[in-house]
Amino acid sequence: MDKQSKKQIMIDRMTEKKREVKTVRRIVLIVFLSALLVLLIGGAAAYTYVSGALKPVDPKSEKVVEVEIPIGSNLESIARQLEKNGIIKNAKIFKYYAKFNNEGDFQAGTYGLTQAMTPDELIESLKTGKVYRTPVFTFTVPEGLTLDQISKVVESKTDYTAEQFMELVQSEEFVNRMIEMHPSILTDEIKNEHIKFPLEGYLFPATYPVYEENPPLETLVMMMVDATDQAVSPYAEALAEQEHSVHWLMTFASLLEKEATAETDRKAIASVFYNRMEQDMPLQTDPTVAYAHGEHLSKTMYSDLEIDDAYNTYKNKGLPPGPIANAGMSSIEAVLDPVKSDYLYFLADKDGNNHFAKTYEEHLKNRDKYITNAQ
């Protein structure tokens, strides 16, 4: 074989080897790309699965599910309990999510949870022992408001008008439904013929979280009545022993709420009203006159006192037929635990400070000192 032939064979072999190397490289590249694609697809699928499992089961759900977390429960058993009750989609993923975020110091108890809660909201609830959700909006009902004033608060926060609100709270069907739902605080006393608005005083002052954009108007009112039930029903038995009703309590407390200008004066004012009723004296409290007139009176004139109305405590002895506003816990507790005193009179000066007197003569001196001469 000549040199030329040997050279050609060598060239052919080198060319063949190059082809083989290219082929191997191509195969390796294809295998690598295929493996990478499988990983990407698998990773995307895994990500989709995990992220989906961490979303609320039903973001629109408002149904509250009671979930019992026994003492001594670990994270795994809690996650299983949540999945069993339909609150989360996957117990394992919830457990790993909580571990990843170094969460796990949860409290035992009975929780009212919903399928609309996120893992973070559930974790916060289990840590604090409270149900935690981010409300869509909140509305605040201050102490001392009438139903008419509350209607304007609701109007400012929702699409409902004040007129729609007042129509609902005066609806006989709705009032009867509230009585059926809250028999411990609502009785036929609120349907007395002299009462202007049956649910007056029963919409508790508080800040209310709302978890849907357009809740039914009935739901908003029911929230406020529920809050009153929770605040007052614990005292129902004690009131019954004293032969007083919740309606009596709410009516009395509403007078304190409208009269008191300072937190500390409520119990003293309560003692004045108790003392006057014991001596068969009319309460003579100006806010009842304003309520009888159905409007705010910046100053009560003698002519205003002549109104013939069951709420006018200048003309009628004892408490009015029903509450004249909503009362906060300070006023409610003042009725239940007044100070002991011999006071029969009180008045507020221009700065809102109350001055008490045992006799009418002392009261007149206070009037001259703090009102007449101060003007």
UniProtKB/TrEMBL annotation:
Keywords, comma-separated and alphabetical: Cell membrane, Cell wall biogenesis/degradation, Lyase, Membrane, Transmembrane, Transmembrane helix
Q: Does this entry carry the keyword Transmembrane? A: yes
Q: In its keyword annotation, does this UniProt entry include Aminoacyl-tRNA synthetase?
A: no
Q: Which residues cross the membrane?
A: none
Q: What is its EC number?
A: 4.2.2.29
A Pfam family that this protein carries is YceG
Q: Which reaction does it catalyse?
A: a peptidoglycan chain = a peptidoglycan chain with N-acetyl-1,6-anhydromuramyl-[peptide] at the reducing end + a peptidoglycan chain with N-acetylglucosamine at the non-reducing end
Q: Which CDD domains match?
A: MltG_like
Task: Pinpoint the site Important for catalytic activity.
Answer: E259
The cross-references to InterPro entries, in alphabetical order and at most eight, read: MLTG-like (IPR003770)
Q: Which domain of life is it from?
A: Bacteria
Q: Which family does it belong to?
A: Belongs to the transglycosylase MltG family.
Question: According to its UniProt entry, what is the function of this protein?
Answer: Functions as a peptidoglycan terminase that cleaves nascent peptidoglycan strands endolytically to terminate their elongation.
Report the HAMAP family cross-referenced here: MltG
In Swiss-Prot or TrEMBL terms, this protein is called Endolytic murein transglycosylase
Its source organism is Bhargavaea ullalensis
| Lineage, highest ranks first | Bacteria, Bacillati, Bacillota, Bacilli, Bacillales
